[in-house]
Every structure is written in structure tokens, then in C-alpha cells.
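PT: before anyone asks, these are the final sequences, not the draft ones from last week. 831 residues across everything. Please model them as a single complex and drop the result in this thread when it's through.
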Amino acid sequence: MTGGAAYSEARGSSAAAPMLHLDGIGKSFGPVRVLEGVSLSVAPGEVIGLLGENGAGKSTMMNIVAGALQPDAGELIFNGRAVQFASIAEGIQKGIAFVHQELSVVGALSVAENLFLGRMKRRGTGLLDRRAMRDGARGMLEAVGATGIDPDAPAGSLRAGEQQLVEIARAAARKPKLLILDEPTSSLTPHEVEGFLTFVRRARAEGTAIIFITHRLEEAMSICDRLLVLRNGAVVSDRLPAETSKEQIISDMTGKAAIFDHPARTVSSADVALELTGLSVPHLLDNISLTVRRGEIYGLFGLVGAGRTELLEAICGARRIGAGEMRLNGEPLAPKSPAQALGRGIALVPEGRKTAGILPQHSVRRNASVSSLRSVASQGVVSASREASAVGAKLQALRVRMENDQRAITTLSGGNQQKVIFARTLLTEPTLLLLDEPTHGVDVGAKAELYDIVRAAADEGLTVVVASSELPEILALCDRVGILSKGCLAGVLSREEMDEAHILRLAFSEHEKEA
Amino acid sequence: MMTHLKTLARHREFSIFLMLIAVAVYLSFANEYFLSQRNLMNVGRQGAVVAIVALGQALVIIARGIDLSVGSVIGLSAVCAALTLQFTGSDILALSAGLATGLAAGVLNGLMVTRFRINPFIATLGMLSIARGIALLMTGGIPVTFAGWAEVLGAGRIFDIPVSVILMVVLSALVHVFATRSVTGREIFAVGDNPKAARLAGIDTVRIRMFVFGFCGLLAGLGGIILAGNLASADPNLGMGYELDVIAAVILGGTALSGGRGSIIGVFIGAMLMALLNNAFVLLGISAYWQVVTKGLIIILAVGIDGLRRGDEAED
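LR: through. Structure below.
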């Protein structure tokens, strides 16, 4: 390393000069201080796990490193040189690759074209050299363990997880010196995660410095060399995975001791609240029969594409069913729209907070009240005071942290936004609550609070169906779990029968039949 | 008081209001005739139809749609009302026929968008041509005399104030209250902000879209009656190009074309500004052709400034 001072590392697995060194980075947006005196080093061939609750400052920090934002204070040393990137393009040119959590593949182009975006291969005639791109794409995909993706498929036809792998492949192919991965595994199947982690290990062996942002603690502990926890814009801990525990990391993140025990609930009622008989949706769901008791928290587990979301959509009228019937509290249920389902007391917290949950230009209050306006209106005219008090009480009960509820919902952290969506559904006083990936991308602290909210509501007699791809969530929350595999109900397990291996075996059961 | 002023200054309505004042002050110095009651009432009358139709258009655009057909629907409604009067001699039937024609065109637009999932731009572009064509077919291209109650609406005065201006003010106030306070009004904003989220939150998005298109058509029908009544004649070419003025007024008033954001007060001021600018061209003796060019520039500028402003926000 030439031209730079030797940086002594306080900690770390490598004695080499750091690839990236941040010193006293500060950043404010207006009066809000987002980062304060953040310092960290990443050595070549080192994987750093960057953890923290939503709103802790992780994204801001990584945007500064990548060149998307300029710091107000502090120094950024990359590859031995003090740098100040003016743009993302400059960061890329210097060898920084940032794979964002939000997907940015171009849906209409093929996977290969996406991988070669901006530097497509041409033949002498000026036309695209499709074969060279296809072969190149195959190699790039293999490198990240995504051998199953067809380079010719339109990128828009891929699952979210596959699109994520395409983006990772694109970043990896640039052979960056520093690779930043923001929640890369949140939509990957267990199999894909394995392939991806193999890629991370290989990149590390080749000397790439990697910053890995994740909410999945197990994963971070297994792959990272060091774990950094960011809280309120400052680094609060820097630990070696071998010398720490999950509980310790959680308490670093939340600033309080982690309480993660989940007592078994007793469902007193024997009444059947929801009954599905032979429910089918062409190509998606096949002959699903199940019953959910009143006050029960019923889990729906399955791999990506198993039909969890589709089943919830069928129940709430967002998707037409092909065959079978549904009953709610003994009465036939056949809603043609979510509006009709809401009339029957069915409320949904949808998957995808940004795309299907929040109204981004609306205030917190109006986001919360939008489903229950009629209950605070007389003769079709909304009473502002009744709306304010109904929403205010609910937001307080759910402990939504915010300045005031007239602010735009986008000013809240992800976990708090999700609480507002919860408030929206609870304000409709539903009898059946459907939750689709309710804590996706939500930090640990907010997760625990959301679980408490669900449990409290169920204790009061609300029937809850939770669709989730996160096993710990199912195990923490549910009284029973129905496991879907490729659109079929592979089994139903009671709380006593639930364990990780058993659930996963059922989730893969239909896949194995094919093999 | 200061914080009040600050929130006021942040609002788009306020900046457009300042623009309105600036143009008015300039004109009052540039032309002595401008402030005369007769001229001001003329401005009000000219702005009234644009403003009334813009109220409906604003709701459509807030719900993330657009209605390009309003100009033709104005013409068709006027023709239908005038012909009904000619054949039945009944003013009530004539006005009802005009309003019903507008409503029917709007409902058809709504059905095309909700049932057949045709992009609103294309659906209403088709309706723009169809409605104009029917108006021409019904009249053979020749204007129909249109007197009676329509003349009162279009050219009448109460205490020296044109009836159309009174209608405009009353309707604006009603629609403003409707948009901000009613359940349906609030749901219109929600649907425009994030249609998918609104649907999953239990809002009947089909009903909302049908409503805004139907309402916009109804107001276009009313606009047609006023416009024809003012001339005492229903020309099948009546209202040609009005969609541009109407959409310009809506956008000038701070309504986002991407939906979910807008205010009726802003739309009202936007329509007044458009009328004032039209008046300025006449008073200052500038070629009417320049007026056509300017209208296009205003639309582009209004959207452009909005885009720049929002771009700044996004980069923060």
C-alpha cells in the first residue's frame, strides 16, 4: 500500500492496511443528526457485519461510502487515499460496488442484458453479440451460486430473490475492491442463501473487503469476521462472532436487554373462525383445507412461491378462487374485493410495506385512518376530532415513535411504519386479521413489539393468520402452523410438534416429489 | 402568526396566488380598462367554465387518472341540451339532457378504465374523438339555437354578478369541502397515492374511479350548457381545446399528475390565472396565436417547476 499512512487497527482479523477507513464521519439532514463520529475499518478479505435497528444510520453511512451522499464531517480513506466521491459513478469507478435492498433490474430486458447493462457486447456490425453475453452471463450467475437462472429469461419474470441474485452477480462481476451488500438474503430461499454465502466466502478469499448489512443475526454470526452495531448514528459495539452471543448483539442494537421468550398460549375457544374446504386457485393453490379457531394465531409457512401470499389474497378477496369454499364464523365467505372482505371483518397487513402498505404522500394519521374513515364520519363527512382521537389512542397503544401524527409517514422508520399499518387494520375492529410477512425488513426491537401486539390482540379474541418465510417468526408467534409446499398444504403442526427441521422438511416435500 | 405564514408559503396554492396577484397588478398599470367592473366580470365569466370543469378534472387527476375528453363532452352536452329544447320545448328536460350526456360520457370513461383496464389516457383520448364526432353527426356541423334557462346560466346576472361566476364559486366551495372532509374525498386521495395499498386497505377502488370520471363528465356537461347559453347557440365545435385549459388550471394549482396530491383552492386559483392571462393577451393587443403558444409553455413550465422542486426533495 503506497501513498497512505499505515493505520493501526484496534481490532480485526487482519493486520493488513484497511481497504476502507472511516474516521469521525458525521452527517445531518437539516436539524436531524443521523451520524456522529462514526469510525470503522475494513481490511481486504474481511467481512464486516453491519447491524442496527431501522433508522440507526446504516443506509446513510453506506450511501456516504458509495458516493451517493457527502459527509459533513470526518475523513474517508479508501485504498490508502483520502477520497471524497462526488457521485455513485465515481465510487464505482474507484472499485466500490453497492447492492441495494431495493431491486433495480430492468424487467423488460433479459437477465443477460441486465448483467451487461451499460457495457453490452457488440459485434463488428454494431449489433448485439447475444451469444457472448449469454455465455458471460452464465459465468457471472454461477459465480454467485445462481445456476438455476436462465440468462435469456426476462428479468421481470424472476422472483424477487432471483432478481436480487442477478444484481449481486452484476456487482460481483465488476470485481470490486469493496462490496457493500444491503440485506442481500432477505428474499432468498435457503438453497439460494447457501450458494450466495459460498460466493461471499470465495470473494473474501480473493481479497475483497465486504460490508454486509442484515437483520438476520444467525447469518451475520456465521459469515462475518466482525460485527459492528450502529445505534442512533454511532458505532456502539465492535465484536467478534466467536466471542459474543445473539442476545448480546440484540441488546447492543436496542440498548436494552433482549427479551425473546415466547410463552405458549392457550386458545380457549373451540369455535371455528375460518374454514377453508378444497380451496384452489389455478396454477397457484391446490385443494387447501384447513380450519382456524377463534383467537388462534395460525401460521402459514412456505418457501418463496409456495402460495402463502396467494392464499391470504384469496381469503381477503384480492384474488379470485377457482374452486372450493370458505366460511367465516360458519357463514359462507366469497368476497370479490378487499373492500367486501373488510365489510365481513377481515383486515390485511400486506406484504411489501412500500409497494402495498403505505400511502407515501399521506400523513401518519391519514395512513392509519384510511380503512376506518366511516367509523369516524357521520353522513359521509369525516369528523377531524374523532379521527384524531381514535388514531391517536391506537398509535399510542401500539407505541409508534414519531414527532406527531401529522408528519408524512415516510419520515418514520420501517418498524414504525409497519406499526401504523397494524393500527390501520386494528382500527377497523376486525374479527380476522391476515398478516403477510409482517416483520419483513423490520429491526429486532420493533419485531418483538409487533409480536406483542399480535399476541395481545389474539388474547382478546382476534383470529390471526400469519404468512411468513421466517421460521423464527413462526416459532415465536404461532399456535399452529400450516406448511405450504408448491401450492399444496403439506402438513399442519401444533405448537408441541413445531421445530425447525420438521417444518422445513414439510416445506420441501413437494419439491422432493419432483426430484 | 409567523408559523402560520410559513406553512402558507410552503403551499403551492400560495405561490400560484402570488402569481395571480402579480399579473393583476401588472395589468392594472398596463391597461386602465383592466380594473373596470365590466372587464373583471368578463374575466370571471371566461374563467368560470374552465374552473367548473377543472374541479372534476382535479379529482380525476388526484385519483391518478386523466380525462382528455372534457372539451368534446362540453360540445356534445351542449348540442344534446339544445336539441332536446328544440324538440320538447322543455327547459328542465333540456338541462337534464345536457347534464345526463356529460354524466354518461364520464361513466363510459370510468367503465373503460375500471372494467376493461384501458389506460385512462387512451380511453379518454378515444372519447375525445367519439364525443366530438357524435356532436357533429347530430347537428350536421351546424350550430343549434339555445335560449331559455341555459341563457340565464350562461349570460344572466344576479346583482350584476354573472350567474356562471356565482355557480363557480359555490361549486368550488362544495367540492373543496367534499375533497377534504368527506369519506369519498379522502379515499380519492388514497387511491391516487398508492392504488395497490388503497385496494388492499379495503377501499373500493372501482367505485372511486367510476365516481371521479362520472363527476368530471357531469361537470363538463354543466360547462357545456353554460358555454352554449352564453352564446345562445350550441355549436358542435364548442369547447374544442378546452381540455388543455382545464388540465393547465389543475396542474398550475399544484395537483400532481402522479396522483395523490392536490387542492381544490389551488385549482380555483389556477383557473383564474388562466383566465387572467387570456384577458391580458386581449388587453395588451398581443396576437391570439401567441396565446396558443403561451398556453403550451405554461403547462410545461408548471410541471417542470414542480418536477424540479420534487427532485430537490428526493435528493435531500
